[in-house]
C-alpha cells in the first residue's frame, strides 16, 4: 500500500486530507513524494514558526535529547524553569503552567478562572463568557467554550457554564454580564482564527477588558494562534490596551513539538496549589529547550519585519481581482475570494503554494522569517489563481 492507502486503512477518519504527501522541507519550502517544491504559507497552522528544519531549534532540541529527555514533574529541570522565567520577563506575567497543546492550555485557564472565583465568591459564580465564532479546542470543555454551533453536536453532554456573545458588540457583552451575575471570566482570541480570521476591534477588546477589571471578572486571552510574534507583537493582546489575567498559548512556541503554556498575572498566580492540576509531559525538557531557542529570537527586529510583511500582504490583496475582503494582522491573514475556497486550494497546490482555510477564507500563517522572495512569489501566484475564472 502507498501512504494514502495506509492512512485510509489504519488512521481514524478525522481529517479531509489533500492528495499530497510531504516527505521533507527546509525553511518555507516543502517537498512532496514526487519531488515537487511548494512554498509553505501555512507553517503547519502556525507551528513551524521559523520554518521547517530550523537549524537553531534543531540544535537546541538535539542537545537536550542527548542530556535528559524526560523526568516527572516531581523534580526540577533547567529548561522548564528557564522558559518560565523568559516568558514572565517578556510579558510581565507572574507564573506559568506547561501542558502539551492549546486545548490543554485553555482547559488550564478555564479551571484556573473557576477556581479563582469559587475560592473568593463561592461555587455558584462559575460562568464563562466566550465569543460567537471563537474557537478554543476539541476537548469536551473547550468545545463547550467554542462559540460555534457546528461544534456543539455529537458529543453530548458538553461541560455546562458557558455563555456566548457577538464579537465587537460591547453593549451585548455588558448586557449578558448584567443578566448573569455568576459570570467569573470572559475568554477571547485577539483574532478569531478558525472562525474566519476576524480581529477584535480596539473599542470592543479594551471595553471588555475594562468592564471585566471593574467587576473582578477575569480576562482570559487565548493566544494559541495569535501568540509568539504572529501579529507583529509578542502576543496579540499587546496590540491593545488590555491587562489579561490569564494567557494561553501553544502552536508556534513549540516549533514542532507539543507544548502548551498558560500564564497567570499577580491576581491569579497562586490559584493553583499542589495537587490541583498537573500534566505528565507538561514542561518536557526537550520541548522547553526548543521553545527557549524560539522565544530568544522573537525580538523587536523580527517583529518589525513581521509587521512589514503583513502590510505587504494586505496591500497586495486589497482590491485585487477575485478578492472580496482582506482581514488580519502581522502574518495572520484571511483572504476572502469571490469563488468557493474549496476550488481555490487545489489550484494553489497545483501551482506549488500551500495555504490554509478558515470558513470561507484562505488563511495565511507563513513562518515569521519567510524570505521576501518566497513571500512575493507566493503572493503573485495566489493573485493569479484568484483572478482566474473557474468553470
Automatic annotation (TrEMBL):
One Pfam family of this chain: Aminotran_3
Key word Amino-acid biosynthesis present: yes
Domain of life the protein comes from: Bacteria
Keyword terms of this UniProt record: Amino-acid biosynthesis, Aminotransferase, Pyridoxal phosphate, Transferase
Biological or metabolic pathway of the protein: Amino-acid biosynthesis
MF (Gene Ontology): identical protein binding; pyridoxal phosphate binding; transaminase activity
GO biological process: L-arginine biosynthetic process
Gene3D superfamilies to which the protein is assigned, alphabetical: Aspartate Aminotransferase, domain 1, Type I PLP-dependent aspartate aminotransferase-like (Major domain)
The keyword Transferase is assigned to this record: yes
Names of the cofactor(s): pyridoxal 5'-phosphate
Family: Belongs to the class-III pyridoxal-phosphate-dependent aminotransferase family.
Protein name as annotated: Acetylornithine and succinylornithine aminotransferase
Species per Swiss-Prot/TrEMBL record: Dialister succinatiphilus YIT 11850
Phylogenetic placement of the source organism: Bacteria, Bacillati, Bacillota, Negativicutes, Veillonellales
Amino acid at each position: 500500500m502507498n501512504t494514502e492507502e495506509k492512512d485510509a486503512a489504519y488512521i481514524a477518519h478525522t481529517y479531509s486530507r489533500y492528495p499530497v504527501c510531504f516527505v521533507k522541507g527546509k525553511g518555507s519550502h516543502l517537498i512532496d513524494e514526487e519531488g515537487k517544491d511548494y512554498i509553505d504559507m501555512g507553517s503547519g497552522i502556525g507551528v513551524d514558526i521559523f520554518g521547517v528544519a530550523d537549524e537553531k531549534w534543531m540544535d537546541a532540541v538535539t542537545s537536550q535529547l542527548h542530556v535528559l529527555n524526560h523526568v516527572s514533574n516531581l523534580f526540577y529541570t533547567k529548561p522548564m524553569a528557564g522558559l518560565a522565567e523568559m516568558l514572565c520577563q517578556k510579558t510581565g506575567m507572574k507564573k506559568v503552567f506547561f501542558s502539551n497543546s492549546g486545548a490543554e492550555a485553555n482547559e488550564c485557564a478555564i479551571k484556573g478562572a473557576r477556581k479563582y472565583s469559587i475560592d473568593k465568591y463561592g461555587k455558584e459564580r462559575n460562568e464563562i463568557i466566550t465569543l460567537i465564532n471563537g474557537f478554543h479546542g476539541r476537548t469536551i470543555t473547550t468545545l463547550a467554550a467554542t462559540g460555534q454551533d457546528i461544534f456543539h453536536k455529537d458529543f453530548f453532554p458538553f461541560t455546562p457554564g458557558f455563555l456566548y456573545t457577538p464579537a465587537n458588540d460591547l453593549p451585548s457583552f455588558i448586557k449578558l454580564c448584567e443578566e448573569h451575575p455568576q459570570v467569573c471570566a470572559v475568554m477571547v482570541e485577539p483574532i478569531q482564527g478558525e472562525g474566519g480570521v476576524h480581529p477584535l476591534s480596539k473599542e470592543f477588546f479594551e471595553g471588555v477588558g475594562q468592564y471585566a477589571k471593574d467587576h473582578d471578572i477575569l480576562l482570559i486571552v487565548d493566544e494559541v494562534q495569535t501568540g509568539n510574534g504572529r501579529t507583529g507583537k509578542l502576543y496579540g493582546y499587546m496590540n491593545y490596551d488590555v491587562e489579561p489575567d490569564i494567557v494561553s498559548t501553544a502552536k508556534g512556541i513549540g516549533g514542532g513539538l507539543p507544548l502548551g503554556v498558560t500564564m497567570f498575572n499577580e491576581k491569579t498566580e497562586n490559584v493553583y496549589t499542589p495537587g490541583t492540576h498537573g500534566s505528565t509531559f507538561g514542561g518536557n525538557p526537550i520541548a522547553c529547550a526548543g521553545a527557549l531557542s524560539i522565544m530568544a529570537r522573537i525580538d523587536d527586529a523580527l517583529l518589525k519585519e513581521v509587521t512589514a510583511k503583513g502590510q505587504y500582504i494586505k496591500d497586495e490583496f486589497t482590491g485585487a481581482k477575485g478578492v472580496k475582503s482582506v482581514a488580519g494582522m502581522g502574518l495572520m491573514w484571511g483572504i476572502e475570494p469571490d469563488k468557493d475556497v474549496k476550488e481555490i486550494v487545489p489550484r494553489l497546490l497545483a501551482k506549488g503554494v500551500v495555504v490554509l482555510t478558515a470558513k470561507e477564507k484562505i488563511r495565511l500563517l507563513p513562518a515569521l522569517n519567510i524570505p521576501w522572495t518566497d513571500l512575493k512569489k507566493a503572493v503573485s501566484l495566489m493573485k493569479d489563481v484568484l483572478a482566474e475564472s473557474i468553470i
